[in-house]
Amino acid sequence: MGPKRKVGDAALNMVSQIPLPPSAYSEEGQRGAAPAAEKPKQAPRKSFSRRQVAYLKKMHTAGTIAFGAVMALGCFAGLLLFAHPSVSALENRQLTEFPEFNVGAFLDGSYLEQVALWYSDTYPFRDALVGANLDLHRAFGISPETQLIGGNRQSDQLPDTGEGEPLETEAEPEGPKREPRDHDISEPEVRQRAANIENQISDGIYVNGNAAYTLYYFDKGATKAYAQVINDAAKMLEGKADVYSIVLPTNGGVMLDDSVLASLGVPNQDQAIDYFYSCMDDAIITVPTFDTLYAHRDEYLYFRTDFHWTQLAAYYVYESFCQQKGIEPAPYFQWKQLSFGPYRGEYDQLVSNSSQLLADEVRVRVPAGAKTVQYWDDDMTLGEPSKASVVEDLTNAPPNSNFYGCFIGGNRALTYIENPTVTDGSSCLVIKDSFGNPLVSTMVDSYQYIWCVDFRFTHQKMMDLVEEHNIQDVIFENVLMFAGTYDCSDLLASIVYPNGYSME
Amino acid sequence: MVFSSLIFLFVFFALNLAVYFTVPKRFRNQVLLVFSLVFYAWGGPKYLLLLVGETLISWWCGLFISRHEERSKKRLGIVIECVALLGLLAYFKYTRFFMGNIAAIFDAPELIPEIFLPIGISFYTFQLISYVCDVYWDKVQAQPTFWKLLLYSSLFYQCIAGPIVRYSTVADDIDHRKVTSLDVYAGMRRFCIGLAKKAVLANSCASVADTLLPMGTEGLFLQNTAGCWLGMLFFMLQIYLDFSAYSDMAIGMGRMVGFRFLENFNYPYQCTSIQDFWRRWHISLSSFFRDYVYIPLGGSRCSKLKYVRNMTVVWFLTGLWHGASWNYIFWGLFFLVFLLLEKFVIGGFIKKHRGVGHVYALIVVFFGWVLFKFENFTELGWVLSCMFGQAGTGLGGLEVQTLLLQNLFLLIFCIVACTEAGKKLHLRMGRMAQSSPSFLRVYGITEALTPVLCLLVSVVALAGASYNPFIYFQF
Which of B177, B205, B240 represents a domain boundary (last residue)? Predict the structure, then answer.
C-alpha cells in the first residue's frame, strides 16, 4: 500500500465515522479547543460516503492548489521590479522609494520596515488594487446623499480684522516646536510633510447631492507662520523682485452658503483670506480671490468629483492678478478650447458613494503663445529636463484618466516655460501647489520666462532662482487648506530662507 | 514584519512554504528555525540576541532541573529562570513605567531612559517560563537540544502575537509531526480566513474606531455622545477580530506543517458571564495565569480571604501583562471586581438567567475596553463623560451618522463574525451535503473557493489600504 493510499484511507476514516464534513471536524478536533467546542455532544446521525469523501478530498486539493497558485503568482509579481510603480495616478502621489542601506537602520529594524513599506506601497497593479479596495469599502454600507467625511477638527475663532485694521500684535502661545531644516532636507521628511498637506483634503469633506466640497479649518498660529514666511521673502527680495500672494478659497468656501458652513463649524473663507492678507506686509501685493470667484459662482469653477478648480476659475484669478499688476490679461476666451472626460477626481476615493457624484468634464483652453514646458522631477541633480505641453491635449486619453494633470506637466519639483512670442524679458517665479498648475497655464502669455516650483517637492532656494534667472515677480500661490498648516509654512521656509528655517 | 502584509505573504511565507515542502523531512525543523529567526530579526536584528539569550537561559535551567533530584537544586533552577526572564521583561517593559511613577511622586529622576520594547517579549518570555515550570513539575522532559528549544520559542507562527504555546503542546510535534493533505487544506483555510478577518474586517473596524476616537489629538475632545459609543463599539469588534485573526493565522500556519496549537478564542462575545468571558478570551494567557500563578498560590481551595488575594494577584498581573500603564492594571482589576461579584453575589442569578447574564457580561466587557483603550486618563475621563452626555459636545452629528450608514453592513457582518453563526452554517451545509448530491457539489465548490477568495480579498485590502495597525506592540 503506497503512502498516497494511506492518506486517503486516513481521511476517509476520519470523515466517514462522523456526521460532520472533514474540514469542519478537523477544526473542532484541534487540540485544546475550549470545552464547549471540544467534541460533538450527540452521536453521529449520518456520515459521508466513501464517494462523497473522495469528492471532497478532490475539492480540498483543488482549493490547496488554488491557494498555492495565488501565492506563487503573488510572489512572482512582486519579483518583477520593473512592474513596481513609483507614482500612483489614482492617489496623486509619489510612492515610497526603496530605502538606502544603512547599518544603524538595519540593526534597529527601520531599514527592513522601510523595505516592507516599499514592497507594499509599490506592489504591481497598485492602482487596480486600490480601486478594487475602494469598491470593497463601498459595499460596507449605505451612503446618504448628504454626508460629512472627517470633520473631527475645530476651527480657531477667526479674528475680526476689519478694513484697514493693523495686524494683531498680542503675544501668541508658543506653538509646537518645529525642527530646523537645511537645504539638504531629507526625502522621507519632504514626503511626510507633503503627505500631511495632502491629508488636509480629507480633514473635512462635505457631500451634498452630486458634488463634494472641501472644508477649511482656520488655524491662527499656522496662518501667522505662513504670512511670516511671505513677509520675510518680501524683505529678502526688496529691490530685486515684486512679491505677490495668491491665497485661494476651496470649493466649499465659494460654493456652499454661509449657513451651511456655519452649521458645519467652519469659517467663512472670505474673512479667512482677508485675515491671511492682513497679516502680510504692505510690500506684498495681495491678489483678491474670493470675491472674484464668488462673482462667478454660477459658472463651472470647481469640479464636483475633485477638490481642484477649473482652468476657468484660474483665469478669473489670473485676471485679478493682472489688475493688481497693471497689465492686460491674455485673451483667454479666444484661445482654442478642448474638453476631456469623463473625469473623476480625488473625491472618488474619499467619498464612499462616489457614484452619486456627477462625473466632471475638464474644459481647457490652449494658450496662443507658449506651448511647451520643461520640467525636472529630480531638481537636486538637474539633469536633462523632460518636456510636456503647457496644456496637454488628452482628448484621446481613456475615460477617467487624470485629466487635471494636463496643465504644465503636472506637479513637478521644477518647471520652466519660455514664451517665444513675448520678448520683453519679463520673468516670474511661481511657488505653488497643484492649484497653481491651471493658473500658470493661463498666465504663460504674460511673461517671457516662467519658473515654477511645487513647494511640496522642490529642493530649490528662492534667492538662487531669483538671482540666477533675473526673476522680476515672485508669486506665492496656495489654497487655504494647505496655506493654513504648519507643514506648508515649514516647506515654504525651506525654499525661502537660505538656511532653511529662518532669516538669521 | 506582520502576517497581514504583502511582504510577509508573497515573499516570506511563500518562500517558507516552498522551501519547507521541498527539503527532505529531516531538514524541515532547521528550515523553520532559520525562517523564524529571520522573521524575528526583521523588527531589529539586535533584539534577536535577547530571544536567543532567554532561550539559552531556559534551556540551561531546564537541563539543570532535570539533572538534579534534590528539591532545593530544582528550585534553584526555577528561581534562576524566573529572576532572569522576569527581570529582563521588567527591564524592557516596565522600567519606564516604574520610573515614571517614581518621578511623578518624588520629582526624580529627571530623565527617564528610552527603552525599546522588543516585539513579542511578553509572549516568548511566558512560553519559556511555562517550559521550565513544566520541567520542574515533571510534566515535560527537558529538551536536550538547544536549537529545538529555540525553534519552540521563536517559531514565527506565534512568536510575536501569540497564542502562548505550551511546550507540552508541541514537544512531540517538533520531532514526530505528521501532515496529511487534510491538515494542509485545513491549515491553509484557517490561515486565509484569519488573514481576511484581519485585513478586511479588523482593519476596517480600526479605521472607523480611530476616526471617531482619534487618541492624542484635539479631535477626540470634539466627538459627541453617539460618536463615542459607536467608536467604542467598533473598537470592541476590532480588538476581538484582530487578536483572534492572529491566532487563526498562527494556528492555520502551524497546522499546515503539522503543529497543532491550542485554540486561543472561543467566541468570547457569546459569554454569559465575566467568568465565561475569560474562559473564552485569550485562553492561552488565562490558562497560563491559572496554571502558573493562581493554582500555585492556592487557587480556590482555601479561605475566602486567600481566594480574594489569589484572584487579586492574578488580575493585577493580567492587567500589567497587557501594557505598562495604569489603565491596563485598572482594566485587570475591573474584571476582578465583577469576578468576585459573580463568585459571591450574582453567580447563581446569572446562571439561571443566561440572557440577562449575556447582556450584563457584554456591558461589562464593553466598558472594560474603554479602560483598555485609553492610557491617558484625561482622555479616558472625557470619553466616559461624553458617553453619558456630560461633555457638552452634543448627542450626535452628521459625521457620526455618515460613518454609521457607510459602515452599517460592515458592522452587522462583524457582529455576526463574532458569533458561531459562520461555523454553524458550515456544519449545516456539510450535513446537507451528505444527503443531496447537488448540495454536495455546492459544498465542495465552497470548500475549494473559500480560502482562495479570502486570500484574494485580503490582498486587495492590504495593497489598497494604508491602514494596518499592529496592536500588540505594548504586549
Answer: B177
What is each CA distance from A407 to A402, A441, B429, in whole angstroms? 11, 6, 58
> Cell 524683505 appears where?
A235
CB < 8 Å to B187, chain A? none
**Nearest-by-Cβ selection for B448 from A66, A125, A129:** A66
Q: How far apart are CA A4 and CA A14, in angstroms?
A: 15
Q: Which pLDDT does position B474 carry in this prediction?
A: 57
A195 within domain boundaries? no
Name the residue facing B44 among A22, A46, A108 (closest C-beta): A108
Q: Check residue B221 and report its DSSP letter.
A: G
Tally of structural domains, chain A: 2
What is the pLDDT, as a whole number, of residue A126? Answer: 86
- The A residues from 262 to 301 touching B (CB cutoff 8 Å) are 264
**A139 and B CB contact within 8 Å:** yes
Domain assignment of residue A490, given as a range: 152-168+209-496
Active site residue B68: no
pLDDT in tens, B4-52: 899 999 999 999 999 999 999 999 999 999 999 999 998 888 889 999 9
Residue A183 lies in a domain: no
Q: Is the pLDDT at A300 greater than 70, yes or no?
A: yes
A83 touching B (Cβ < 8 Å): no
Which residue among A79, A96, A118 closes a domain? A79
Residue A455 lies in a domain: yes
In a domain, B347, yes or no: yes
Three-class SS of residue A182? coil
Alpha-carbon distance of A160 to A166, in angstroms, equals: 11
Strand boundaries in B350-402, DSSP class E: none
B41-88 tens-digit pLDDT: 988 888 899 999 999 999 999 999 999 988 999 999 999 999 999 999
Which residue of the set B176, B282, B322, B353 is catalytic? B322
The interface predicted TM-score (ipTM) is 0.88
Tens digit of each residue's pLDDT (9 = 90 or more) over B113-149: 888 888 889 899 999 999 999 999 999 999 999 999 9
**Is the pTM here over 0.80, yes or no?**
no
User: What is the spatial distance between Cα B336 and Cα B312, in angstroms, rounded to a whole number?
Assistant: 7
Half-sphere exposure of B99 (CA within 13 A, CB side): 15
Q: Is the bond preceding B109 in cis, omega lying within 30 degrees of 0?
A: yes
The whole domain housing B135 covers 6-177
Whether residues B406 and A129 touch (CB distance < 8 A) is answered with no
Q: Evaluate if residue A28 carries a pLDDT over 50.
A: no
Interval B196-223: pLDDT, tens: 999 999 999 999 999 899 888 877 888 8
Decide if A52 is inside a domain.
yes
Asked if A24 and B433 come within 8 Å (Cβ–Cβ), the reply is: no
Q: How far apart are the first and last CA of chain B?
A: 16
Return all residues near A346 (Cβ < 8 A) that are at least 6 apart.
A91, A92, A201, A305, A306, A307
Q: What is the pLDDT of residues B383-398, one digit of tens each?
A: 999 999 888 888 888 8
Q: Do B154 and B202 sit in the same domain of this protein?
A: no
Final residue of a domain: which of B146, B177, B208?
Answer: B177
